[in-house]
Amino acid sequence: MSLKGKNILLGICGGIAAYKIPLLIRLLKTQGANVRVVVTKAATMFVTELTLSTLSQEPVCKDIFPDLFSAKDDWTRHITMGEWADAYVIAPATANTIAKLTAGMCDDMLSASFITLRPNKPKLIFPAMDGEMFSSPSVQRNLFWLSQNGCTVVNPESGDLASGQCGTGRMPEPETIAKMIAAAVASNQQDSKLHGKSVVITAGPTREKIDDVRFISNYSSGKMGFALATAAAARGAQVTLVSGPVHLQTPHGVNRLDVESTAEMNREAKKHHASCDIFIGAAAVADYRPAKAASGKIRKKHETMGISFVKNPDILAGFSKQKKPHQLAIGFSLETAGNLRNAKEKLEQKKLDLVAYNTFDGKTSGFEVDTNILTLIDKNLEIRELPLLSKQEAAEKMLDAIEELISSDKKTSDE
Ligand code: CTP
Questions:
Q1: Which of 210, 356, 404, 415 is exposed most, by the fewest CB atoms within 10 A?
Q2: Alpha-helical segments (H) within 43-123
Q3: Are 243 and 203 in contact (CB under 8 A)?
């Protein structure tokens, strides 16, 4: 992965981890990247503009308004910077700037050029702060929003913090950041095997009506499916997201269709069977529905009551049944028991190209939480165990595996 000739915009906020950034600039320059630096006022308390401009060989940008007495200064620089960048990296990202980016504020050069960045360019955010600040509800809410809206949020590492405490908040080392930037630029858009592909993703729970005021459902939040939609759109795919009832915002550039029941999800998904290249079943679909939903409200007349259920259609298996050789079927296998057997069976029975065996522990992996532990098994029974990752990072890994399948299928058909 090379950064030769790539334009990297580097945003620095006022955090102690800013002392690591000069080294990052050197690493990026050594790899052939063009680096421009944008700083907040507070950042210059930690690292000098002279150091940054010497290493980047470019003037450092700070103020949104130009120096009117300098002929060289350009009053549209906040726009041209966003157009210039192949990737925008904000490191360290402080709680204040994270809040500004989430709110869409643009009162300094860093936040203004964030808004003008061209769609689908990688945005990497490296929060670094005290552990208590990092875990505060507002910071977590804002980071979640950014990760749902096209940003790759790289969680800080655990260790000794500047406050003298030990906790989560340390920015990764410059070598790690440089590798991540190179990977993000390499897998972006035009280079991505997903660029221009049509991807359909089912997400969230389904609801099955018992009567006019009640339903049965499950705890799915839709976060994994939405993370996949975000990541696929960032790689240039045309994404259709068929979502059950969730409380999530539609990712940037994604066509979202809201449904409630399994029958509705199936109906919408089927409309795309023939035209899509990749079908990802990330929804937690209700396997059964009440045989007949009562009209009105069922009254509390008896000590016990029974509901008779009938089986729902299997949406993913329905896609696989009719799929053409060039189409890929991807599924999940959420299992409470810790073995891969069920996942492998689903891979075979539903004729999948890839299954994500999803361990459910109720705390770090499964429904509602922001992290997941996945094991990816492809149709050649190649197994890839992933560590505990944010759902956004897990989504990127799944898409990497899908891109590998596309490459190997193409190779086989070319031979
Ligand atoms: N799936 C689907 N339609 C269904 C049930 C499941 O599309 N009616 C998809 C899910 O989106 C997931 C995969 O099939 O990608 C496996 O779902 P899961 O609930 O793990 O397994 P089931 O097939 O429902 O089997 P079981 O509940 O017995 O584990």
A1: 415
A2: 49-56, 77-84, 95-103, 109-116
A3: yes
Range with the largest mean pLDDT of 236-240, 331-335, 365-369: 331-335
How many secondary structure helices (H) and strands (E) does the chain include?
13, 21
Strands 198-203 and 208-211: unpaired
Best residue among 346, 349, 357 to mutate for probing ligand 1's pocket (most ligand atoms within 8 Å of CB) is 346
Is residue 73's pLDDT more than 80? no
Looking at the fold, whether 167 and 206 belong to one and the same domain comes out as: no
N- to C-terminal Cα separation, the chain: 27
Q: What is the mean pLDDT of the chain?
A: 91
The DSSP output letter for 12 is: E
pLDDT computed for residue 275 by the predictor:
94
For ligand 1, which residues put their CB under 6 angstroms from it? 202, 262, 281, 283, 285, 287, 312, 314-316, 331-334, 346
Local structure of residue 195 (DSSP, 8 states): T
The Å distance, Cα 412 to ligand 1 centre, comes to 30
Q: What are phi and psi of 342, to 5 degrees?
A: -60, -40
Asked if residue 1 belongs to a domain, the reply is: no
Burial of 339 per CB tally in 10 Å (0-12, 13-18, 19+) = exposed
Average pLDDT over residues 353-366: 86
Same domain? For 326 and 347 the reply is yes
296 burial via Cβ count (<10 Å: 0-12, 13-18, 19+): exposed
Does 243 lie in the same domain as 176? no
Task: Give the nearest ligand 1 atom to 280 CA.
Answer: 15
Q: Report pLDDT digits (tens) over 122-154.
A: 999 999 998 889 999 999 999 999 988 888 888
CA 333 to ligand 1 center in whole angstroms: 7
Active site residues: 218
The residue whose CA is least distant from atom 20 of ligand 1 is 333
pLDDT at residue 35 is higher than 60: yes
Q: How many domains does the chain have?
A: 2
pLDDT tens digits for 167-211?
A: 778 899 999 899 889 878 877 656 688 988 999 999 999 999 999
Is 294 inside a domain boundary? no
Centre of ligand 1 from the C-alpha of residue 284, in Å: 7
| Higher-confidence position of 65 and 126 | 126
Find the domain containing 156 and state its range: 7-191
